[in-house]
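Suppose a classmate hands you a notebook page containing two proteins, each written out with its sequence and a corresponding row of structure tokens. How would you begin to make sense of it? This section walks through that situation. The first entry is reproduced here exactly as it would appear on such a page.
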Amino acid sequence: MYVQGFIVAVPEGNKAAYADTAERFWAILRDHGALSNVECWEADVRDGHTTDFRRAVRIEDGEKVVFAWVTWPDKATADAAGEKMMRDPRMAEFGEMPFDGRRMIHGGFEPLVERHV
């Protein structure tokens, strides 16, 4: 498995628009091989001493942190999907995003420990 994760600051008033964008993006992710997608809206994000989620995305007044991830069978599938998704005509239908993508933090990860009930 391969996991792509990200955090982003979203204006509170854009919560519904963000959820709609995430739902529409899931269809594209799924069609290009993603196994799952989880989008989490801030519920209890505290300020840290050295760093924290808020500082990482340079949160502004009236914004919330979204923490999300996508799982893939492997990195090769994720990499191939990234290229294919940029050519997918559905991507052009999104228009302006309901968040400032310049402050998004993202990366790819290989699971180290994984447990499920």
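The notebook's second entry, a different protein, reads as follows.
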Amino acid sequence: MLRLKKRPRPAVTLPLTALIDIVFLLLIYFLLTSSFIHREGLNLSLPRALSGKTVKAPLTIYVDRNGTIYFEKKRTRAEELVEVLSRRLATRQEKKVMVEADRRAPLEAVVSAMDAARLAGAKTLSLATEKPRAP
């Protein structure tokens, strides 16, 4: 009987260094291009609504739970808000204003903020809400 010597099989190695480099670059790419939702302004509990769409408004009025109105990080009254908003809206092509009101804010304060925006010349007025959490 003829005995043949078995040749050792060549070991197959994968170049893991290149694979790790690619994964690392993809990780950096996705971290840099992703956007994390961070709302500026007051810490408000917005009312929830099922119907709604995402709108970007450059000017935002905030109403806290006590009914205090804030614009551009400054506490303001509704009468002053009309003047300040009309100056800001005069320089803008889009006349959009967003009202972010706490769900426990008095209705009168929210309506006066919305009314001040309309009197200042806002063409589009949006009320900020959040989507209900899934069960």
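A careful reader of the second entry would note: The two ends are 75 Å apart (CA to CA).
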